[in-house]
Automatic annotation (TrEMBL):
A single GO cellular-component term on record: plasma membrane
Biased composition annotated in UniProt, kind: Basic and acidic residues: 378-402, 410-421
EC number(s) reported in the record: 2.7.11.1
Enzyme class per UniProt: transferase
Protein name (Swiss-Prot/TrEMBL): non-specific serine/threonine protein kinase
Residues annotated for ATP binding in this entry: 107
Amino acid sequence: MSCFPCCTSQQKLNRKSLKKSIKEYREEKNLASFANISFKTDGENKRFITEEIAKFGKGNITSKVFSYRELCVATQNFHPSNMIGEGGFGRVYKGHLKATNQVVAVKQLDRNGFQGNREFLVEVLILSLLHHPNLVNLVGYCAEGEQRILVYEYMANGSLEDHLLELTPDTKPLDWQTRMKIAEGAAKGLEYLHEEADPPVIYRDFKASNILLDENFNPKLSDFGLAKLGPTGDRTHVSTRVMGTYGYCAPEYASTGQLTTKSDVYSFGVVFLEMITGRRVIDYSKPSQEQNLVIWAQPLLRDRRKFVQMADPVLEENYPVKGLYQALAVAAMCLQEEADTRPLISDVVTAIEFLARKKVEVDEPLSTKVTPPQSGDISREHNKSNDCDNNDHNNKDNHNDNEYNNNNNDDEKKEKEKDKKDEDDDDDDDDDGINKKL
């Protein structure tokens, strides 16, 4: 899909430059050198990273290069009180850049962690060359000495995981519409990587902790250290060692190492199921048969009558029932065992856009359904009042009133039958619509 207004001509030039650079890079067989960065001395490392960024980026890298001293000042020497998170790359600190009066998130590489120079370089390149409202903005980086530090825009509401899976007593649960809005934005971020970037980029680490939220709960994908360039030409996949987070990896990737954009679609399905159910993908605190979210959900997804059992309890039934059914249908399609049977991420975006835009009034939450007074009930109350005020009416008038009420009741019965038929037809139309979109 090409419906992103933010894709400016400059971004198109960047993508063309990226494609050309990759081709030249492969011809020179320099991609293999990524793995050898860690064997160089500190001085060589710094020069190597600078040269690689300059060569690979072809002058399109606009991210600022920070000195280690600047970032020490911004984070008060990486004081523990400023730490706002920790991941595979390292710890993340809140900082303030005095020169630009900007609040930022500063991610410092853990030299004993799982990710290193290769992941650092990949993230700098991808976030410098690709830009979208649903990708986090890279402000700059530091590659001074042994330091590998990334500087991002600050996201006020932390990660989706903070608001979904690690609720504190003072954290307000996400409502249904906010969840659909977050799912829509995250899917659009993947869509941009898969279908707008050239060559396509496979994210490979889609999970709740990597979806950051701004002050308005708009989502942005972060942590691109494990991203891979997707297959081009006649190739159907890229082969690579299995990386990522247990539970989120697609089965074909986990078993064979063959990676495609459909691998990201599976991971999206896992996170979307987490958003619907409020359950972690792997939770050892639950009974053994419920510890794996996907395995627990599979039999329930086959029985429409059990769909409501899968809704997050903290929603307290404040969700549109038809919306729940349709959201679970989207998740089930993404979680298909065979990669070829999963939808494209653009189809997923279309379906979730429908769910995010849908007004709750169309299908009210279970807890707010109230039967409105019917026209026949109002007529009966009105006639009862008239009888009290006109006790001197003769039997003939009373007979006429009864006949009038009986006619009203017959009309009411017919009207209810018609409304029920229309409602059933609407339900069928909605289900057909969501299926067609997938």
